[in-house]
Amino acid sequence: MALTLGNENVFIRRLARAPIYTVSIKKVAKIAGVSISTVSRCLNSPERVRDTTLAAVQAAIAQTGYAPNALARNFRRGKTGLIMVVLQSVGLPFWEGVMRGINGVAQEEGYSILIRETASSPPELDDYCKMVISKEADGVIILASPSPFSTPSAYATSDRRIPIVLGCENVTDELAHIPSVRVDNRRAAFEATQYLLQLGHERIGFIAGSRSSLLTRDRERGYLDAMQASALGQNRAWVTNGDQSIEGARRATRKLLSLAEPPTAIFCANDEMAMACIYELKRNNLSVPQDVSVVGFDDTRYAAIMDPPLTTVVQPTEEIGERTMRRLLSAIEGRDIGQAPEFVEHRLIVRESTAPRQTAPGSTQDVGSTQDVDGSRQQIA
Fold it and tell me: Which terminal residue of the chain, N or C, has fewer Cβ atoms less than 10 Å from its own Cβ?
């Protein structure tokens, strides 16, 4: 019903007088021929009820349309049914899959999600910790965000530790002891660099995040490990700071190109910087991958459709979200989840931004397909 200035007050008054039809648990019990406590047991602990009784109660619920009062049920259980998710910006493409995984498990388990962006007002984050301590929320998931605690020990100031799990990496040292679910960034970067080495590239540049960023530190270490393990060794001149931004990556690309012997391949610590790197290479009249191969990290939504499609490390974002939520629920239930990171599998997907190093004019490459690092091949539609 569309409201106008003339009839909206009439509609509201009628709505206020309208009877509210609710179905009580008492009516369900009467139809099922059981006690109220048995209906409650069927709803909260169905495994403790005989199959015939459970079927009768379920049929009565279906017949009446009864819906349990979630607020009252959670109150009795000493839970709020709320999970706080803290992240810097909900608009970043990478977090879509992670949030989809978190929400899927939350809905399945009867929880609601409260999102807080730290980029908007970081000083107020401690209020959210107080909400958990005062039982206004059941736990916290931090997604690559600074700590929501004013001091490193704040999360242990109540009579119980705040259930908290990191989705992906910790971005500050004070969060290093908090359990996390993520890929093994160091190993993934090692394998991506090894792939470029196998293509015959010897001068491989790396565009890192800022020096203070823990987010890309392990990726840089993995790159350095692979270079050290090769006969080439490490060359710090090939490592430059991209600030995890488009402009920073463009500056870093120009710096690498200014070297006396510029790289024939560049590995970027995330896809956004890889896209900026390719843009800058083209502005310098260089072709990707004929002149320079480029690898990213994350496999964000634009990686497969950019020009050329980007070779990148795939993070299974939805799985990260699901496993992060399940680990948090285990902590909420009082189970010991430990502090060690829980690793999910990554993979390198090979697209058209990488090719063997050219050794002579007119070298050709295999394009039009994607290839996982294990050698399997899939045709791009």
Answer: C
